[in-house]
Amino acid sequence: MKLTTKEKWRLAFEAVITAGIIFLCYFAAYEIFRWFVVTFKETVSTLWLFGDVVEDIDQQELWGLTPLVFLFLTITAGVAIHWRLKRRYRQYKLKHIIKELHYIAQGNYEHRIRGNYSGDIGKVVESVHLLVDSTVEAMEEERRIEQSKDELITNVSHDIRTPLTSIMGYLGLIEEDRYGSEEQAKKYVHTAYEKAKQMKALVDDLFEYTTVRQTTVPLDYVTFDMVQLLEQVAIDFELEAEKEGKNIQIISSKKPMIMQADTEKIVRIFHNLLSNALKYGKNGKNIRISVQEQENNVLVSVKNDGEKLSKEALIQLFERFYRAETSRSQETSGTGLGLAIAQSIVDLHNGEITARIEHGWTVFDVLLPLKRSL
């Protein structure tokens, strides 16, 4: 810490004052001792063991003491002055720290308390910096949450308004008898019904997303075979895969692959990944699911050889309502919540999900613990 000129002068002045006070204390103590010796000569002479103290002290002033005694008194005074100035310097340190804390409290959170501090003060300064950093991080997280809420409202409004407008339009035509035949009226009703199903899918996904985002959600852990579970999920997509001209293949380094997890939620993870691969893996013919054990974890990789995603898309894939196709059209009938839900379920199981491009394949890696973590 660098002292100001004013503080340096104060320290010098305090050193002089402290030295003067110590000298006055020495002088007063010496004069009292000399008075006592002169007044009680016989008693002191009897008790004193080092020469004729009465004669020596009666004729000697304080500054006439022997060099050894004078050196001792000077060293004692120096120690007292050093202690006093050290205390005052510590107070100046605290004053500087408090001043800079007030500056930080005014909103200058990027500011750091200047100077090198050691000991307890150094620990306090370090703790203050950690507290400021955590506060800034919490504020930034709060800002992101607020921004995320605004985006949530915007995206939900958009995705609900589009099918709702169609529903109201077609039902309005029927309400006003503006249709040419019963067949046309049925067509209007069917279109409105399909749009209503899109809205229901969005609401269901929204409800599930908000549910799995709660860290207090209890998981129903059971012991199961991951390979068998994936085979069941693949069977559910066989017809859709054949329709799209795609082949689903499961490869496992070990059978069975026994682990513990909430099977209902695990199924949802791979249901979303396969659904994503079928919808967005354009021009692809193969979907491969590989399973391998890694220490105390199981790694499941879901990959397709369809159209590759951009680096920007890979970064944003797990954000809610994000779609690789930016038009947000209803053609893919997706809500943009599938991967966000998958990530939330993986997080609940203390796992990790990532996306990457490898040799022309789009790969989703899901890493899950084999056993329930207590």
From TrEMBL:
Keyword Transferase in annotation: yes
Domain Histidine kinase: 155-372
Domain of life: Bacteria
Any one annotated GO CC term: plasma membrane
GO terms assigned for molecular function: ATP binding; phosphorelay sensor kinase activity
Spans through the membrane: 12-33, 62-85
SUPFAM superfamilies: ATPase domain of HSP90 chaperone/DNA topoisomerase II/histidine kinase, Homodimeric domain of signal transducing histidine kinase
Localization (cell): Cell membrane
Reaction catalysed by this enzyme: ATP + protein L-histidine = ADP + protein N-phospho-L-histidine
A family per Pfam: HATPase_c
Keywords for the protein's UniProt record, in alphabetical order: ATP-binding, Cell membrane, Kinase, Membrane, Nucleotide-binding, Phosphoprotein, Transferase, Transmembrane, Transmembrane helix, Two-component regulatory system
Record EC number: 2.7.13.3
Record's keyword annotation contains Amino-acid biosynthesis: no
PROSITE patterns referenced in this protein's UniProt entry, alphabetically: HIS_KIN
InterPro entries named among the record's database cross-references: HATPase_C_sf, HATPase_dom, His_kinase_dom, HisK_dim/P_dom, HisK_dim/P_sf, HssS/ArlS-like, Sig_transdc_His_kin-like_C
Protein name: histidine kinase
Organism in which the protein naturally occurs: Alkalibacterium gilvum
